Amino acid sequence: MSKVLDQKDCSIIEILDSDGRASLSEIGKEVGLTGPAVGERLRRLREIDCIDGFGVRLDLQALGYTIFALVRIKPRSGQLRAVEQMIQDQPRFMSCDRVTGEDCYVARLALVTIAELDDILRPFHDRAETHTSIVKSSIFTPRLPPLVPRD
User: For residue 149, what is the DSSP state?
Assistant: First the structure.
């Protein structure tokens, strides 16, 4: 990691990861700093691109998305860029990674019904092979890897 963090930086990030609405003074109490000092550290962490934004965690099932699918996508010869654009343009893809191996992409879809799967993937079939797995359950949601402070 080229951007080094001290223990207080790591603690601030971990607190915000678990409660993105924690106030600067609440964070400060937990890490032994004043609210303004926490604000200054957050500003610095944004400046050095350790923090690139703040967001919200949604309960997608409460919003009607009850089915999730993992789709491996292997573009046909000469179709790599077109397929990548199609993935980016389809809003139901929640994430997509370019990977090594037989497939080029592994993407995650959110679905209201299983019937939507055909409608979403049909446009890809002229340009790519797709292999889909339905997610039965998730062991855990995305999480931070261990943060290692400099000493």
Answer: B
3-state secondary structure 15-44: HHHHCCCCCHHHHHHHHCCCHHHHHHHHHH
**Structure-derived torsion over alpha carbons of residues 57, 60, 61, 65, reported in degrees to the nearest 10:** -170
- Report which residue type is found at 88: Q
- Is the separation of the CB atoms in 85 and 73 below 8 Å? no
* pLDDT tens digits for range 55-83: 888 999 999 999 999 999 999 999 999 99
Angle between helices 35-47 and 24-31 (to 10 degrees): 100
Question: For helices 35-47 and 7-18, what crossing angle results, to 10°?
Answer: 90
Task: State how far the Cα of 96 lies from the Cα of 41, in Å rounded to an integer.
Answer: 31
Q: What's the pTM value of the predicted model, to 2 decimals? A: 0.82
Domains of the chain in start order, with CATH, are 7-47 (1.10.10), 67-134 (3.30.70.920)
Give pLDDT tens digits for 91-119: 999 999 999 999 999 999 999 999 999 99
